[in-house]
Amino acid sequence: MNSGFIVLNIFSLIVSVILIIVFFIKERVHHVEDNIYGNLLIMVFLTNLIGLILGLSLNIDNIYKDFIIIGLNKIYLIFLIISLTIFAYYTYCISRYFKENSKIINGIFFLFAFLNSLVILILPLEVNTVDNSSMTSGMAMNYTVLMFGVVYLFLMFLVLSDLKNLRNKKFIPVILLIVEAILMIVVQAFFPEMNYLVNPSWVITCLVMYFTIENPDVKMIEQLNIARDTAEKANAAKTDFLSNMSHEIRTPLNAIVGFSNLLLNDKDLSASAKDEVQDIIMASENLLEIVNGILDISKIEAGKLEIINTEFRMEDVFKELVTLSKGRLQDKPIEFKTSIDPAIPVLYGDASRIKQICVNILTNAIKYTKEGWIEFKVDSIIKDNICRLIISVEDTGIGIKEENIDKLFNKFERLDLEDNITIEGTGLGLAITKKLVDLMHGKIVVQSVFGKGSKFTVSIDTRVVKNPTLTKEEEKENPNVVVKNKKVLLVDDNKVNLKVAERLLQTYGITVTSIESGIECLERIKNGEVYDLIMLDDMMPKLSGVETLKKLKEIKGFNTQVVALTANALTGMKEKYLNDGFDAYLAKPINKDELNKVINKFLGEE
Ligand code: ADP
Q1: Which stretches of 18-172 are assigned E, i.e. beta strand?
Q2: Are residues 208 and 231 in the same domain?
Q3: Nearest-CA residue for atom 20 of ligand 1
Q4: Ligand 1: residues whose CB is within 6 Å?
Q5: Confidence category of residue 67, pLDDT binned at 50, 70, 90
């Protein structure tokens, strides 16, 4: 027997054993094709083994030699056809035709292999042994070649019918097998005795299969990628859903808050009715805060929350926070102590997020303190052009158990619920606070004695602005806005929203023209109608607010100021609308103070 044959076949036998061991001991993802691949490995190993025994048996000298060689040859051919059928089944399973594991298809492949084996077993086979090399012929051999042809045609069909995915590495093994077959036909045409290349070629194919698609690691990574893509898609869908939901909830809330504010100004309303209206406003504000919280956390988790730095005065933020907290304290027997370092210069940072952090910890202090005092302090350490803000809120409230401090920042986590059951909350505030502090590379520290009180300290670095451009004017508070003979064009596709804004604006004595589309807005301006201010909703059918504004600006001589009035209140939206060219932004539900500011800025008179 040719020593090349022996060496090559022993080598491929060893490789196939190693492959089997590596494949079966590794933890795997269980797919249909993985099991098929496992079977293929075993079959290839057996074919190799028989091939080797067959090669070695050519040397024996025995009266049954011919019988043994024919028998072994038949088994070898049967194993080959079974291996090829398994390979075809495998390729089918990774092809685009495979939809789900079907017993019928499974049965067809099984039947194909079984019937072929039977036919090969029955049909006559001739083996000529010359110089320790054997040549097989006869009907069994011809039949095997025919069936190989059939399977190769099937494989080629699978490959060719999915040409656009040809680059996909899953096709590498099948293309390789086809190329190997062609090569072997060519080689054997010239050197008929070199039929011992079949086994090594199978092992090479299995090896390639392993390293391209069947390696459990490759599969795991593939699975992980699929899982990650699915999760990302689901998360994006969740964020979209939440932002739509926020928009949808804001629209009716706008009506509730708007009309409640109007009712408050109604002179005929009794004192008790006014009280109830106040409660409606407070409940709506709570609801709005919850919606905003859910929206924020989902944006943060989707990595979409951006820190938007601008110039700001910490003192302004502080004043707003004090006013807001005093409002929330109502008549609780709590002393509210405040202090701010007067040396804090104009800073560059995300004022609205810093404010949000403070609102969260201040609101908690107010919620979880029955009596005593709350101290809100803003200190600073300035070094070079960095100003470290040290914001602390200390209270004499219910305090937090030591073992619970670590859980504080988990989302939806509320501590000692039995005790706090009457205190409203979602358990989102501190989770958001922590994430915001992290986003600004700051720190938050909690000190607390259960039953005595807590202290939350946040430190955030901001940049000092050397030549501030902030004008003092923006600080000016003007609660009594005076408006004379002003005309506002109000554009919103939602009738209720129109009514709310219209009524709110009318309380300033403004003449309001309400229309329901951007297209009508354009027509009116083109027709020469003049207004002192345009208030434009964004999400409108056909022509959005942003598109309307763009077209308005193309109109020659157009210089009316335009305010975005929208329920699209995702974080960063204000900046986006200002970038889009709006002169100001008002979120729905319309906040009375914000509206005051806008009216004062654009329509107010000294
Ligand atoms: P919630 O909406 O429940 O207030 P937070 O995330 O803001 O959610 O707070 C999580 C939990 O931490 C609260 O439910 C409360 O148990 C506890 N907590 C937060 N701040 C304080 C505080 N100042 N005093 C006592 N407990 C607090």
Answers
A1: 126-130, 133-137
A2: no
A3: 364
A4: 360, 364-365, 367-368, 395, 397-400, 408, 414-415, 420, 425-431, 454
A5: confident
Q: Per the structure block, which two tokens stand in for 604?
A: 């107010």
CA 414 to ligand 1 centroid distance, Å = 6
Shared domain for 263 and 365, answered yes or no, is: no
- The structure tokens listed for 540 are 């409108």
Same domain, 25 and 79: yes
Amino acid identity, position 447: Q
Distance 363 CA to ligand 1 centre (A): 9
Q: What is the pLDDT of residue 457?
A: 97
Question: Would you say residue 476 lies in a domain?
Answer: no
Instruction: State if pTM tops 0.85.
Output: no
User: Is 160 found in the same domain as 17?
Assistant: yes
Name the DSSP letter for residue 213.
Answer: I
In this prediction, residues 38-51 reach a mean pLDDT of 91
| Cβ neighbours of 285 (radius 10 Å) | 15
> pLDDT at residue 473 above 50?
no
Q: Would you say residue 309 has pLDDT above 80? A: yes
Residues 513-539, mean pLDDT to the nearest whole number: 93
| Percent of the chain clearing pLDDT 70 (strictly above) | 91
Closest ligand 1 atom, residue 398 Cα: 25
CATH number of the domain to which 32 belongs? 1.20.1070.10
Q: Over the stretch 167-213, which tens digit does the pLDDT of each residue have?
A: 677 788 888 888 888 888 788 777 766 666 788 888 888 888 888 87
479 inside domain: no
For a mutational test of ligand 1's pocket, the pick from 294, 360, 364, i.e. the residue with the most ligand atoms closer than 8 A to its C-beta, is 364
Q: CB 382: neighbour CB atoms within 10 A?
A: 13
Nearest atom within ligand 1 for CA of residue 416:
16
Mean pLDDT of 253-268: 85
**Residue nearest atom 17 of ligand 1, based on CA coordinates:** 415
d(CA 5, CA 396): 89
Distance 364 CA to ligand 1 centre (A): 6
Name the residue range of residue 516's domain: 487-602
Q: Rounded to whole angstroms, how far apart are CA atoms 274 and 411?
A: 36
| Mutation test residue for ligand 1: of 391, 430, 433, 435, the one with most atoms within 8 Å of CB | 430
